[in-house]
Amino acid sequence: MSKERARRRAEREAEAERLAAALAERQARAARRRQLRNRLTGSAAGGVVAGVVGGVVGRVTAVLPRPSRPVRVARQRGYIARRRRTENAVLAVLWFLVQVLAWILLDSWMARLAVLLGSILVVPVLVTIVFDRRS
Predict the structure, then answer these.
(1) Model pTM?
(2) CA distances from 47 to 28, 44, 56, 64 (A)
(3) In the predicted model, is pLDDT for residue 3 greater than 50?
(4) Which residues in 33-51 are b (16+ Cβ under 10 Å) and which e?
(5) Distances (CA, A) of 29 to 26, 37, 42, 60
(6) Dihedral (CA of 40, 42, 47, 50) sign
(7) How far apart are alpha carbons 124 and 120 in whole angstroms?
(8) Higher pLDDT, 77 or 91
(9) How far are the Cα atoms of 25, 45, 109 from residue 15, in angstroms, in the given order?
(10) Tens digit of pLDDT for each residue in 115-127?
(11) Residue 108 phi/psi, 5° resolution?
């Protein structure tokens, strides 16, 4: 019975050590992130560093404005999102090529403007007809 208790206690201690190491790693990572953010935004301890460096008095390490809240930029992943991005990219390239060809081949400003306005009006119709985005 005591061997079983000793084994379980050893397992608990090993688990506690593993959790403590993981916590220490998370805290160290957060501290590095905080230090980098302070250096980039010039807040708290990372603000202005005083001193004479190469004839310049004071060196500002703040290069980025501090956002009011964290900004996360992430796009959707998956097959449908990837397909939609591809379709949108193809549409944009084709629209751009039509505009370039119109500007190269047509001499009249009115014709160029008509192609521009016409393509702006036709693109949504083509998207509706060509790409079935309902499903």
Answers:
(1) 0.43
(2) 21, 6, 16, 12
(3) yes
(4) eeeeebbebbeeebeeeee
(5) 5, 12, 20, 25
(6) positive
(7) 8
(8) 91
(9) 15, 36, 75
(10) 999 999 999 888 8
(11) -80, 135
Phi, psi of 58 (to 5 degrees): 80, 135
The C-alpha atoms of residue 60 and residue 39 are separated, in whole angstroms, by: 9
Tens digit of pLDDT for each residue in 33-64?
Answer: 888 877 776 655 444 444 444 544 444 545 55
List alpha helices for 42-135, DSSP H.
79-105, 109-130
CA atoms of 49 and 71, how far apart (whole Å)? 27
- Give the Cα-Cα-Cα angle 32, 36, 39 (nearest 5 degrees): 140
Helix (H, G, I), strand (E, B) or coil at 110: helix
